[in-house]
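Hi L., both proteins are below.
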Amino acid sequence: MRALLHCKLLLLSILLSGVSFSNDSGKVFIYVDSNSNFSAIDASKFTWKEIKLGDKISFGYNENVTIWCKLVVNSGKKNQDTFWSFNNIHLDSVLLYHHGELVGLQGDRTSYKSEFLNSYTIAPTIGNDSVLLVAVKKQLSFIDFSVELKKRQELFDETESSLSLFYTFLGVAILLLSLNAYICWQTRSKLYLVYILYSLVGIIYVAVNMGIAKYSFFPNFLYFSEFRIFSGCYWFLLLGIFLTKILDFQDSSPKIYTYLMSFQWIVAGLTVFAIVCLWTKTYSLLFIPSYIAYLIFFVNIVLLGLGVYRAYLQKHYRVKYVVLSFIPHIFWGLNMILAAFDFIGLSISKNWISIIILYEMLLFGWILIKEYVDSFKTVQLLQAQVIAEEKKAIVEIEQSRLKERRMMAEILHDKVGINLARTIHLLELGKQQEVKDLIQDTGVYIRNLSHRILPKSLEMGALSASLREQIEHVNSEYQEINIRFAAYDFPETISSERAFTIYLISLELIQNALKHALPEQITLELYWYPENIVLCCTDDGCGSEQAFIMGFGLSSIKRRLTDMNGTLHISSDNQTGTCVLIEIPHVNTH
């Protein structure tokens, strides 16, 4: 039941904050001292204006205004369990006077810790005196607050609800941050790092905005008014930087990206300027960074909107998530504007910004985690496919070896075996010269066969000659395909070890093109440059990059290139075919 009561109070505080309630328990009178010229002893001279309990008192942006409040509680309604409640925890000071003397001090610029989180409270009477005099100040910012009479239990329940909201928010945020911190550590991605920084600043801003920072952690800190402005500004700046990363502004909108990144340095400078003003107590200059910070905030929104629109035109797949993240901002902003100009009477409470930040953190955190999980599954699937292809390739290699052995056996049987049988027969007949000629013919045949399998010139480093010879044999076997070879400025011989490796790579490229691309023409080219060797294999087939990537050949080529510090580039298109470009730096070549 108590949890249900907290939920009801939480919803009520979020949706109905600022609503006036008729109450005959007391009266509130106000007087606006525009330049703070008067003191408590001048109260008898004030022209008091009565307002209803719960009505919002708003003076707009000011530099040195004091709003005097005369609080009168009906004598028949005195209750030790009732408090005057000032419903704005970001007022600089709430000063209580009795007979012209200061007897109570609360506010953001004081070290006073309020008994309740959501409001500054004052007992309804001092002794038998039912009339209280309170001065409210909010320097260099907007003044808006309301005054009500509230029961202790109501104030306590509101405090518990706000604390429950914040610590629920904090728990979810820590969970998201932990998951994304792990992913950031795994991927070393700047996108996840920016999300973590944006979320941390968002948590700080929520703690300051809800009053938790002063209420629970730093009651003696006197500059939460400025800290609130700049933490909010940094939060939105980091949100903007995060959006530039998630929507790839650096590629799609480079100018907007440059402007948004420069804003963080401007705000950093403004922060230093504000700290200096506070340190030197030159408070009159604080309006400069405040105005500029608000201006940057506005320009930031405009540029982000423009960048998101451009990303939408380019059909970026993440635009829908960004639009979803800004929906609550739109409702909140419209409500704030319409309520400020009294177009509507319902005002969303300060807790709404906490819900917006939590919503954004949940949305973007879920998106990043989902994308990581999806990419992980894709990698696992590709690895499974690669393993399957490698197994298939191994089977094909074994089958190819068996085929080669069978062919060698047939060759030895058909040619060498027959020649040996004839040699024996001729020896029996005593035809020595014919035996000698037959043996020489068999030797030449075996030598040519071995050269075809592995050219003799390759042992001397004659790479281009060996490739040209091998390609001639392949062309004789594949009459329907033309394989062309060319070498440009390439020396006749190079290191035999390198020649052998590049020879095998070249044959692998040709074999992959024949197997996967179904080409009509294959071109193999060798280039000799002062810095490196370039091997280029192109075909006019159907585009074999995917098959080439998934095949066993790529791993074999990469393994050989790794030993030579070489690089591999593949481009493929269904219309133009496949181009494989290999660059190998010179090392110990001659």
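That was the first. Here is the second:
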Amino acid sequence: MPSYQNNQTGFVALFCLLLWFTPVEAQRTDSEEPLNLIGEETISDPVNVTPETDQEPVKETADGGKITGSNADLGALGAADNSLAKTSAAYAQVNLGRRKISEVGLAAIGVGDGNSTESGLDSMIWRGTSASDAVFLLEKAAVISYSQVLTNLSYRVVAKKSVPPSGANLVAGELVAARLAWLARAGRSHDLAVLVDQLPDLPRWASWKRWLVEHELIMRNDEVACGIVDAQVATTMEPFWHKANVICHAVKGNTVGARFAADILAANGVEDPVFFSLTNEMLTGVPAENIEPNMLDTMHIVLMDVVNRTIPLESLVVLPSQMAQSVVQLKFLGNDARLVSTFDGLSRGLIDHNQVSKLWRNAGPVDSDPQLALAQLDGKATALTSAVAWRAIDADTSPERLDRVVAAMEAEVADGNGLLMLPLYAELIEDEIADAYAAADLRLNEDGVAPRISMLLAIAKPDDVALIEGFTNNHDAVRAADLIKMIDQGQSQAAVISDLDLWSMLPVLKAAGAVMQDQDWLALIKDAAITKQPFISLSPTVLAAVTQASDNRRVAETILLTNWLLQTGPLESINPKDLAKLVIALRNIGQEDVAKALSKEILRAHLLVRFAAGVVNGTAS
């Protein structure tokens, strides 16, 4: 068979003959059905995340993205994150050469209105930071840290349209490539699409344009995707664009044109058995056979969704991290694939907890025994075991349901997913205690679960005191709620801190503005034992860089450095004095709300460790 390269005449024929064909039959047979899988809500801005790990976004072994390295020096911080070259190999390869004046505006692309102020971020967030330093931070700093709120803020900094850092005209290409690679590692498909759409139509960005087409097809924005494809197929022989052209003809209803285009591809030596098998299924309705999950690529996943073919978990492993947000919108995911991709979206902060609970409840019938699901979760918490356990307990109607919530949260805290999963289990608790009989049992506390359940509710919703008032033995829960509320009240209470034995939190409380009134410390320690707590210290050099950046009001630089430091380890493991310096730095750059939110995260992390240890009224159960 003649090679693809030596048969360009076939493609010339394709360009001419496809003009004769008109739409015949729509191939997205589900096009009249609602595409929103989670009700009226849309995919949200980042809400809750856990630290990243070097993994595909939807592997079954995903564990919520725990950071495995805990070294605090600069080298360790850099090593814990993927390098630009590694993470962007498939989609962001660019040729770096002499800069042109026409590229000056390239560095200013972004999401939103550059003149607006959102989340305390105005258009001058890069003021005082050089473009070369910005590239360094984007390439080396963390994408996802142990702080949910800092990861969220970092997303906004990188994606936001703003005045470029100084000297951006000299390194415009590198700066934009670094931003794209950063957002790709974070899985921010929607923000990526906005940026890529603003890129000039030049060879250096061609791979990103291909990615944009795949993303828009997965999102079922066929008109947008096919508009890009139509412009490309007239000028290139590259197989990708002509494969995409086959799909575009099909989703437009032009089955004759799609079949002819596929035949031309095959005749010109393009070898892709999976593509042709799925294309045949799309055009004839005859199911493709022997589709091996390890032979798939992103275009194959697009085709599987077009033909309404169930996409198994194993197939999603081929998708790069930049598809993490896109994949949540795939309509024909298998049950396990839906569970894992949703957990991944939650851990990256791409969807919120309300959306997760809806998606998990709609992921097919629940066939797992809650006790078995708990045993699997306790043995090894992964994205799949976490999702399966939650669904099993959600469907559980037995009297042991709340005991299982406690056991599940203990396992999640032990595995580092406590803060991530807490709102989901708090939802189940509220659902259970809405029943009058269950509420009565908790008041009686016959099985001793009441103080544990009330503690979870207090940590999750400290402002909703009514939720825990009716619980027996709720003293610790009330104290926990009072501790978290100190951040907003601006005053620390010695009695509360003493009852919870969380004096180590004083630096964080003080940094957040919760000042303690005059205290006789000598009197306090007369009846108290001297205790030691092992904490990890943050990198002193990076910490000094954060302080320097905040003192000079370099907003974006401060935020990215802070997020970088917070990948060092779980919040409860970091020296509170170091964390207090980060809180102060955030307040210095006007991020008062974020500083308070970070402080609450730190308190919650410590309270969850106390919960997992079974401490009730100062005594381990």
